[in-house]
Design a protein that fits this description.
26 strands, FAD/NAD(P)-binding domain, 30% strand, 5-stranded parallel β-sheet, globular
């Protein structure tokens, strides 16, 4: 689009950084301004619950260095977020009062940790994990022998449980629901995950509600609904995020819990786009849905960049994400709510990190989902099967003598 000479990206995270790379990779020559409220340059978030805690000196998470941003011709504003969008004037006002004009605006503002005010009120010994400072603050907390309570049995909670056990902490996970990773994992894999954590001395409490919390000297006391008291040196909670959509709401854009965007990542204002955790996108099912994955942030950033430039973007791959827990790599693709699941290989909870198998999610005879456990090289074949609407064949797909590459 020849009239797009000035693009402003609000949010210096995964989606914002990916948008820059996509724009320049597709030969966009106009001005790009990247605005971030953090003082850091764009960095990867998946390592925050793992390597940043376990190997802080050796872990590099920066996506775009200062030199790389300069080479790409990006004007970078750090530690000075956006206070207001004036959609009519096509400007954003920064916290320090500066005004920046745009032709096209991308909101990649991510989300903030959903709060537990009763725990926040305790002040000390209570933590969340959303940004680099949060992760760095946990490094001295997760030390051998320390008693750690993790509230929330989702991906972040279980990754932190794994990291804490690696550092020889005593770990308790409290989950209100009946499953760990219940939002993004089929029951059969959730049960396998649960067994892995319990075998590694993680005390996982399912269907457990918290009645109260208080400080007793240097201990946090968590009272469960049944009256049991758990004492800890620290509590870390991760119960989901709240999309940072207030800017969009104040600007009059269409917002539900997040910023509603179409298949091009455009908001209700054609010159304003949104991508990543802050965006809820219209899906094939006809509903708007938000996807909190590293891949989705990259995907939507690419859609935005190509649409702005009038370049056709390829059909999206099936949704994919991964998690590393207890020295086991789990990768998920496609529909985790498939009607039935079939295992290729042997799922043996007793084998722990020595497990290696593949799972097919099947609905109406078609492969619609897939999971690899310590079998990452097979993931590309599962993605291909799902994209091709492959019919599931028990004898063929479960035969470990068959090369998945040849039958995908």
């Amino acid at each position: 689009m020849s009239n797009v000479n000035n693009i402003v990206i609000v949010g210096a995270g995964q989606a914002g950084a990916s948008a820059i790379l996509e724009l320049r990779g597709n030969k966009y020559e106009g001005k790009i301004t990247l605005i971030g409220d953090e003082s850091h340059l764009p960095y990867e978030r998946p390592p925050l619950s793992k390597d940043v805690i376990l190997k802080p000196e050796d872990t590099k998470i920066e996506i775009l260095s200062e030199q790389k941003l300069a080479d790409l011709g990006v004007e970078t504003i750090r530690g000075n977020g956006v206070m207001k969008i004036n959609a009519e004037a096509k400007t954003v006002e920064l916290l320090n009062g500066d005004v920046v004009a745009y032709d096209k605006l991308l909101l990649a503002t991510g989300g903030a940790a959903r709060r537990l005010p009763n725990f926040d009120a305790l002040g000390k010994h209570v933590y969340t994990l959303r940004n680099l400072e949060d992760s760095q603050a946990l490094v001295p907390v997760l030390q051998a022998g320390r008693r750690i309570i993790l509230i929330g049995g989702g991906v972040i909670g279980l990754e932190l449980a794994s990291s804490a056990r690696y550092k020889d902490c005593q770990v308790t996970v409290i989950e209100m629901g009946p499953m760990v990773m219940g939002r993004c994992s089929p029951q059969i894999l959730s049960e396998f995950l649960l067994e892995q954590h319990r075998q590694n001395q993680v005390d996982v409490r399912l269907e457990t509600k918290i009645a109260d919390c208080r400080l007793d000297g240097e201990e946090v006391v968590v009272t469960l609904e049944g009256g049991e008291e758990l004492r800890a040196d620290a509590v870390v909670y991760g119960i989901g995020i709240v999309p940072n959509a207030q800017l969009a709401l104040d600007a009059g854009l269409d917002v539900d819990v997040a910023i509603k965007v179409n298949e091009h990542c455009q908001t209700s204002n054609a010159d304003i786009y949104a991508a990543g955790d802050v965006a809820t996108q219209l899906r094939d099912c006809g509903n708007h849905r938000r996807v909190e994955t590293w891949e989705n942030a990259n995907l939507q950033a690419g859609i935005f960049a190509r649409h702005v430039m009038g370049v056709e973007h390829p059909k999206a791959n099936p949704a994919w994400f991964w998690t590393d827990q207890l020295n086991i790599n789990f990768q998920f693709v496609g529909d985790m709510a498939a009607a039935e699941w079939h295992i290729r290989g042997e799922m043996d909870a007793a084998k722990g990190a020595d497990n290696s198998f593949v799972m097919y999610g099947v609905t109406d005879g078609q492969i619609v989902g897939g999971i690899t456990v310590n079998a990452a090289k097979e993931m590309r074949h599962l993605k291909k099967m799902i994209s091709k609407n492959t019919a599931f064949d028990v004898e063929k797909h479960l035969d470990i003598a068959q090369d998945l590459r040849k039958i995908a």
